[in-house]
Design a protein that fits this description.
By secondary structure, the chain is α/β, with parallel strands linked by helices. The protein folds into 2 domains: 263 residues, 3-Layer(aba) Sandwich (Rossmann fold); 187 residues, 3-Layer(aba) Sandwich (Rossmann fold), CATH 3.40.50. Helix content is 39%, strand content 19%. A hairpin with an 8-residue loop joins strand 3 and strand 4. Helix 10 packs across helix 13. Bound molecules: adenosine-5'-diphosphate and alpha-D-glucopyranose. Adenosine-5'-diphosphate (ADP) binds next to helix 1, strand 15, strand 16 and helix 13.
């Protein structure tokens, strides 16, 4: 019998995206369907999600639960044909603004909004009300985490749960009073339940009650079992280590294919690497930078937050352009960081280009046009841009942490000699560490033969979802056996 899996997430490419979770939700379910699993996606009905649906079928009315309002469950399809369930609940989701925040502030009713996601997921794992009941419930990040508590306290038999923590820094913490208001029984309120330092924690519900836990890389799975990266949950994660698996994410190699990417000025691959230059020119032109092939062009596409270490890039920016080199930054995030980058672009208009905003197609051109990609993250559960970079012949310089360790082979005499080197690790992850990685990278850049070896090693790597999908399928089978 085909295994039925419900993949519940708060964002999904191409409908709604703030970060890598959307890329994963847009690609992993499709990869699992290629392995003949009946995977379906569940998303909140934000305006862009409802607007993008070609057809929507009303499937069921789900009654209120405590203060969580009633919702309609709609049936639809993602553009690539993956079946999609949408939670239509206008009082919670029909509003302008982002999925989590408006103008930099969390929506005040996020507890209700994401409890709704979790409990509808749990409903699909307990009821056969739509003629389809999940055999496995795959909950993603804190947004869906409370689903594990609803399953745990359901009076009906429920599907086993796999919880994926994409980023432990986001925990979904709310006032204790929400526990009852969201319809959870008093038994859930315990240190062995959803309680975390006096607050209700959605991520803890997932970590505590799931049958299996995964995260975006083997290194991050190890790191979160200790402080500081366990972010206060290291004890629980260590206790659950037998159920905790690090599975390196893949990338969508169709959407991110330098040979077929419509956002590029010129397509290229490892056999036509010289065409990459046209993209560098296009990027320089787009930002009004001095147009020349020889000056190394560094790029950043990122949320501008502390996690990503973008302040370290600000710290070395002057030295970088004195090298001489150029820098392009595409990002949004903390207002202070946005202002810092804007100021840099203003004082060095021909060497530094900055776009503050979320722009998918500019992100693609940037990956293609840059020579080097900067990602000095202080922690990184997986990270996707370092994989996009390698596929686009753009050498990544990455913090020596989490998924970056697991997906970029640091240049050393040994790895250069055996041809496996594909980027550079920043260690320690501070301004001095970044400075020295940049110096090493620039020395390699000046030796074209060596540089091309690095580029080609990255481009030859297989970052497709097939391997990860296989590992997920194995875990689903294990917990549903
Ligand atoms: P995270 O999810 O922690 O932000 P990832 O590396 O997993 O980090 O994924 C980030 C995703 O968001 C990538 O697909 C990246 O290209 C994209 N992204 C980040 N910032 C922007 C932006 N300003 N414009 C377009 N895409 C962006
Ligand atoms: C999170 C992490 C990032 C990861 C992504 C997808 O946003 O910060 O490292 O790649 O989730 O799993």
């Amino acid at each position: 019998m085909t295994l039925r899996v419900l993949f519940a997430a708060s964002e999904c490419v191409p409908l709604v995206k703030t970060g890598g979770l959307a890329d994963v939700a847009g690609a992993l379910p499709a990869a699992l369907r290629r392995l003949n699993l009946d995977v379906r996606v569940l998303l909140p009905g934000y305006p862009p999600v409802l607007a993008a649906l070609r057809e929507r079928r009303f499937l069921a009315r789900i009654e209120p639960l405590a203060e969580v309002p009633a919702a309609d469950l709609l049936g639809a399809e993602l553009p690539d044909g993956v079946p999609l369930y949408v939670i239509d609940c206008p009082p919670l989701f029909d509003r302008a603004g982002g999925p989590y925040q408006d103008g930099g502030k969390d929506w005040p009713d996020n507890a209700l909004r994401f409890a709704q996601l979790g409990r509808v997921a749990a409903w699909l794992a307990t009821e056969g009300g739509v003629g389809w009941r999940a055999d496995v419930l795959h909950l993603n990040d804190w947004h869906a985490g409370l689903g594990a508590a609803y399953v745990r306290f359901s009076p009906r038999p429920a599907a086993p749960v796999l919880f994926t923590v994409h980023n432990l820094a986001f925990q979904g913490l709310f006032d204790a009073s929400w526990t009852a208001r969201l319809g959870l029984p008093p038994a859930a309120w315990s240190v062995d339940g959803v309680e975390f330092h006096g607050k209700l924690s959605f991520v803890k519900a997932g970590l505590q009650y799931a049958d299996a836990i995964t995260t975006g890389s083997p290194s991050y799975a190890r790191e979160i079992q200790t402080a500081p990266l366990g972010m206060g949950l290291e004890g629980l994660l260590f206790a659950r280590r037998a159920a905790l698996h690090g599975i390196l994410n893949g990338i969508d190699t169709t959407l991110w294919d330098p040979k077929r990417d419509p956002a590029l000025a010129a397509p290229f691959d490892a056999d036509s690497l010289s065409n990459k230059k046209a993209n560098k020119r296009a990027l320089q032109r787009r930002f009004g930078l001095r147009e020349d092939d020889a000056t190394p062009l560094f790029a950043v596409v990122s949320r501008l937050t502390d996690q990503k270490g973008v302040d370290l890039i600000v710290a070395v920016a002057q030295e970088l352009i004195a090298a001489p080199a150029q820098l392009v930054v595409v990002g949004t995030g903390e207002p202070v960081m946005e202002a810092e980058f804007r100021a840099l672009a203003k004082s060095h208009p021909h060497a530094i280009g900055v776009h503050i905003g979320f722009d998918e197609s500019l992100a693609h051109l940037t990956e293609a046009g840059a020579d080097l990609f900067l990602m000095p993250s202080r922690f990184e559960p997986c990270g996707l841009n370092q994989m996009y970079s390698q596929r686009y012949g753009t050498v990544p310089i990455v913090g020596a942490t989490g998924g970056l360790l697991d997906s970029v082979v640091d240049c050393s005499d040994a790895t250069l000699a055996d041809g496996s080197a594909s980027g550079l690790h920043v260690r320690p992850i501070d301004a001095a560490g970044l400075r020295s990685a940049i110096a090493r990278a620039l020395a390699l850049y000046r030796t074209p033969a060596q540089w091309q070896r690095l580029q080609r090693a990255g481009m030859a790597r297989d970052f497709s979802w097939d391997r990860a999908a296989f590992e997920y399928a194995r875990l689903y089978a294990q917990i549903s056996a």
